[in-house]
Amino acid sequence: MKVYTFLTDGFETVEALAVIDILRRAGIEVETVSITGNEQVCSAQNITVKADTLFKAQPVCKEDVLFLPGGPGHKQYNECKPLLKLLEKHHAEGGRIAAICAAPSILGHLGILNGKKATAFPGFEKDLTGAEVLTAPVKVVTDGNITTARGMGASIELGLELVRLLISEEKAQEIGRSVQYLEKQA
To answer: What's the pTM value of the predicted model, to 2 decimals?
Structure first.
C-alpha cells in the first residue's frame, strides 16, 4: 500500500506536506507525484518541492490511496486528463481517495462524490456535486472510500484520519500525541 500525493504548481504547502509528514511518521509509504512535467513544483506560498516522480501511467493497486492537496493550483488537476481517468478508475475499483480544501471539487465534478458525505473549503460547496455537504465545525469527513477535508487547518487531522483508516485508531492516537496535536492520556 502506498499513498500517491499529486502535486501541481500552486498547491497548498501545509496541506500536502503536513499530511505527508503524518503518514511517513506512521510508516506509510508516500510518493509525491508531479503532474507538471517538472520534478520541481512550486507551492502557492512560493516553496519549491522536488517530487519523487513525474506523473505517468503508474500501476496503482486498490489498496493504494490517491491524495489531492488543495490550493489555487487545484484547477490544474482538471487539465491532467490521465489523472482524472486514474481517479475515476481507482474510485470504480473501490480504491481510497483523499482531497483537501478546494481539491474535493475535482471529485465532485467527476461524480465521485455522488451519494457521499463530503466537505471542502468554504465557497466550494457548490462544486461537491451529488454530495451531502458538511460544513463547520466538521473538518474531515470519511464516507466509504472517500475522505475530504476543509483546508489547511485540517491538515494534521486529515493525516491522522488516513493513519486511522490505513493502520489503526491506536496508531493515529500515538502519532497525534507524539506531534503534540493530541494530549497525552493520564
So the answer is: 0.96
